[in-house]
Write a structure and sequence with these properties.
Elements lengths: L1 H86 L6 H82 L4 H13 L5 E5 L2 E2 L8 H7 L14 E3 L8
Parallel strand pairs: 1-3
Antiparallel strand pairs: 1-2
Helix pairs in contact: 1-2
Length: 246
């Protein structure tokens, strides 16, 4: 009987250790599942910052295009003035001369307004370029921070992947040491009870469902030499020594 109890104690210790490994694996998996979402957030943040800069650049380019168009139009109108002035020596009547002068004055007046418009556009371009330069510096800092966060995330991913593999190896070794009947029971309970098939008992209370354990049962649990299950949640109860009395 004592040999059987000793064997059960060893088996309970093994399944308790297995439970801790499985909880660690669960925690690692939750982290691993979170990483793609975090990486996606960083990608979206980076994309938004780059798009903001691109839109401001497009505004500058659009105004530059407007400026070039107005300057091109101004050049054409100035050519008209030159041609009109060239005709002045050819007019024969005062009426024709006055008409030509009126035409030249009208073109010059229109050109003057066009020159004002060009200056306004150039001022706007200068302001936008100043804002763009400032914005590019700010975005540069933000993008650097994003890259730092991305690197940290990648390091965490690598660390968790290593921890996952190590724990899986430990689990495989441990699983082979547990009796098949107990291993099957543990896995069945774990699936039904949110990943927890073995729980500690503390102060006459099951730490899985927090329902009181009968006093005599609690005394037996503390011996760790029998397979005892919580009367309420049906999980395997385990006495974790002095750590439960602190």
């Amino acid at each position: 009987m004592s040999d059987r109890r000793g064997l059960l104690r060893e088996q309970l210790e093994l399944v308790w250790e297995l439970q801790k490994i499985d909880l660690e694996l669960k925690s690692i998996k939750e982290e691993k599942d979170r990483y793609p979402k975090e990486m996606k957030k960083l990608d979206e943040k980076q994309k938004i910052e780059k798009e903001r800069i691109q839109k401001e650049k497009e505004k500058v380019e659009s105004l530059e295009k407007t400026r070039r168009q107005k300057e091109g139009h101004l050049n054409l109108e100035q050519e008209k003035i030159k041609r009109a002035e060239g005709k002045m020596s050819e007019v024969k009547t005062n009426k024709e001369y006055q008409a030509l002068l009126s035409e030249i004055d009208a073109i010059k007046e229109a050109n003057s307004r066009l020159e004002e418009e060009i200056l306004q556009v150039m001022d706007e371009i200068d302001e936008l370029k100043k804002d763009l330069l400032k914005r590019e510096k700010e975005v540069g800092v933000t993008l650097e921070k994003i890259e730092v966060e991305r690197k940290k995330l990648q390091e965490k991913m690598a660390h968790d992947e290593k921890a996952w593999n190590e724990q899986m190896e430990r689990r495989e070794v441990l699983s082979k040491q547990i009796e098949s009947k107990l291993f099957k029971l543990y896995n069945t309970l774990k699936e039904k009870r949110q990943g927890v098939g073995v729980v500690s008992a503390k102060n006459e209370t099951c730490q899985g469902c927090f329902v009181n354990v009968p006093p005599q049962m609690f005394i037996e649990v503390q011996k760790n030499n029998a397979l005892i299950r919580c009367p309420n949640c049906n999980r395997i109860l385990y006495w974790d020594g002095d750590r439960n009395t602190k």
